[in-house]
Specification:
The chain has 2 helices and 7 strands. With 147 residues, it is of the alpha+beta class. A 7-stranded antiparallel beta sheet has the order 1-2-3-4-5-6-7, with no helix packed on it. The termini are far apart.
Length: 147
């Protein structure tokens, strides 16, 4: 009988911890509605962490475990890539895309377990987010907030 209570208590404790962790993952929000500036090509080796680290708070991955990979690299070390993928191991943690080439992200995607969980969008390219989309575990749109 004691074993049954001990096992039941352990199962309940595990369920509570899992629920708290899932709730924390579902409640991600950007540090600002102002879209982040794209890191310069010269910052991709790690220089982005100090200036942009706030964007990864609550993303489920420590900053030291994240590396940045630029795509569509323009010429010059201080030039800014049009897309940066932030990777935790072999899985994406986030990606930032500058669709209009102004040096500021227009689309920020945050991933959970390799799938898009959130999208923050600057639809009118004014530097401020207009839309936050939240996706459920199956990849379906769960909610959309317009600002």
């Amino acid at each position: 009988m004691r074993r049954t209570y001990g096992l039941a208590a352990a199962v309940v404790a595990l369920a509570v911890l899992t629920a708290v962790k899932l709730r924390a993952q579902q409640d991600w929000s950007p540090p600002s509605r102002e879209m982040p500036e794209m890191p310069a090509s010269s910052q991709l080796g790690g220089g982005w962490r100090g200036a942009l680290g706030g964007w990864f708070r609550g993303a489920g991955e420590g900053l030291d475990g994240i590396r940045a990979v630029g795509e569509e690299m323009p010429r010059g070390m201080d030039a800014k890539p049009r897309m940066v993928r932030f990777m935790g191991g072999s899985r994406p943690v986030a990606s930032w895309t500058d669709r209009n080439g102004d040096g500021r992200a227009d689309l920020v995607e945050v991933y959970r377990g390799g799938a898009v969980a959130y999208q923050l969008i600057d639809a009118d390219y004014d530097g401020t987010a207009n839309v936050l989309r939240v996706y459920d575990a199956s990849g379906a749109l769960a909610r959309e907030n317009r600002y």
